[in-house]
Amino acid sequence: MARAARILAVTMGLLCLAGPTFAATTEVPPKDIHWSFDGPFGSYDQEQLQRGYKVYREVCSSCHSMNMVAFRNLGDPGGPFWNPKYPNPNDNPVVKTIAKDYQFPDVDSETGDAIKRPGTSADYFPAPFANPAAARASNGGALPPDMSLLAKAREGGADYIYSIVTGDRAEAPHGLNVPAGRYYDPYIAGDLGSFWKGDPAKTPPGGFIAMPPPLVEGRVTFDDGTKATLNQESKDVAAFLQWAADPKLEERNRAGLGVMIFLLLFAGVLYASYRGVWRDVGH
Amino acid sequence: MSGPSTYEPKSAIERWLDTRLPVIRFSADLMAYPTPRNLNYWYTFGGILSFCLAVQIVTGIVLAMHYDPSGAGAFVSVEQHIMRDVNYGWLIRGLHANGASMFFVAVYLHILRGIYYGSFKAPREVLWLLGCVIYVLMMATAFMGYVLPWGQMSFWGAKVITNLLGAFPLIGKPITTLLWGGYSVDDPTLNRFFSLHYLLPFVIAAVVALHVWALHVPGNNNPTGVNVQSKSDTLSFHPYYTVKDGFAISLFLILFAIFVFYLPDALGKVDNAVPANPLVTPAHIVPEWYLLPFYAILRAIPDKLMGVLALAGSIGVLFALPWLDTSKVRSMRYRPAARVYFLIWIVATGALGWCGSQEPVGQVIPGLTGPMLIDYDLNSVTWLSRISALYYFAYFLVITPLLGLRETTLPVPDSLYTPVLPHDAGAPVGASPVLATEG
Fold this sequence. Notes:
The structure holds 2 protein chains of 2 kinds. By secondary structure, chain A is mainly α.
């Protein structure tokens, strides 16, 4: 839906371009959250990913697909249900149980009939709608974006997702004419000039989004007993989406540390050789 | 190559091979190549660039094994298959995507060094021209490579850039259709871009071989710009410059690794994590950073055809540089006025790069509204682009030719080695330094 809002914002931007004056889009920068995966030594907090997966599964996935993630990925190293006892994530019992809860269309190899069968670890997350048209039809014309890469596809990444889902948009500023089926959000880039009745210089920053505020306190019940505040749910789901978009972050950071240590030593050795070779050479 | 060969076959098999295909002699002469002894670290970018080309070709060949050049499959093959399922796919792609940027960092410093020390001047014009050809090929290759992941910026970048050719009267449209393989950017475009993206690096490698050949005929320039006069001015390429280049490459690798491991997406655009969609135009279509100055020149000019010509001219003028520079002194070390104009040129080109990343109507000084002039506010990105582009061209077409005729230069040393004597306190001028053994 962020994309739908984006389309709207762009269209409005283009309309303004055609007009005599141009107003650039505005937005409030996303809240700066401290994440466990920040920085060169960052890693995912597995419990947080498990909570985030629950929020995704019980809330987001009813509208948003996540086509690039398979159940087995949940058991990959760094993933929410990684267990060193199961180096092959397809064998991970948690993963298998989750997959079994879903039914997938298949063909009976004996009769050729179309059947439904329980999911396996190798299946990809099923999409909530059969196609984009069906998704639009159920969402007031807006297409909920696929979430596989969402954290990489938005400026601000997890901070941005957190800011959008915590929703500072229950109340639109007084004087803003919000169209039906749209919600005001200061973190969405947009140009609200033509929807604002007050002083043009005080046009609120941000744009419209078609997604209603998705989370409220207690929307899910966390299995680890963590209190499901709005803040907690938002943070956890943003972290989960970051993992979904960048599942190799831990592997990359670990490899990076080794590579940096090697390169520093290698550069040192080469510098020593350089000094040795060039010693007593006028240059 | 310059000078007689110093290679002597040491074994029977070497003698046998030497009279049939003297590859060992060829390599030995390359390693023993007499190189000016005063080359500084700015001269290490040649080696760094060869390294970059090798990295791009090796990682590219591996990526091609896993890539699907179709509109329906390209994005998934990159973002799902390569990034998630291929062993170390994230690393190979990270090296390739960031390697392109590293390649351009190195080539820009290499070009700046060439201009500063006058390495394009006689007798190195052909060397310079081949370098310009490599640079143009690099830009074409990088542009087509950016299209391959088939994200939003890939698609729309391809659309904007290929549309430029349509600005030419009569021939523009047929050329664009041919390039697209249809009437819009689509599957056939992606397929031919993939084919050309695989081909061009090998063309680059071939031109690099010519570039090195053209280097070895007149020999290296050096920071003084003074010709090599005797054997004592030079050192054997190996080990002196292999070890110096090697050290420089190791430092360059550290910078490269910071991007690959810790900032893998910093140089890209978030829009490219969204699959290509012909129906949704991204809010800001911008090319990769290394093409931004030329993009700004294109947009600075109100007429599309003139803009495209200016864009082509901004690169074309580099080819003419050896004949535009009238100065008798090669190195800017002894041309104080030229140094200042050159520094301003670097700033102007940097400003163009910044302008290319901004919206044309954006304000340069926030909050200040100036008078409107030729469609744009005077305090707009467009006007900064126009002024910078004007300087960009004036530097090559006016300043460089005139300055060479009028400037006052500093005294140029008699030998490239004199200014870098060991700094013996009280050593009389002209005292002969202790020379190391020659290679």
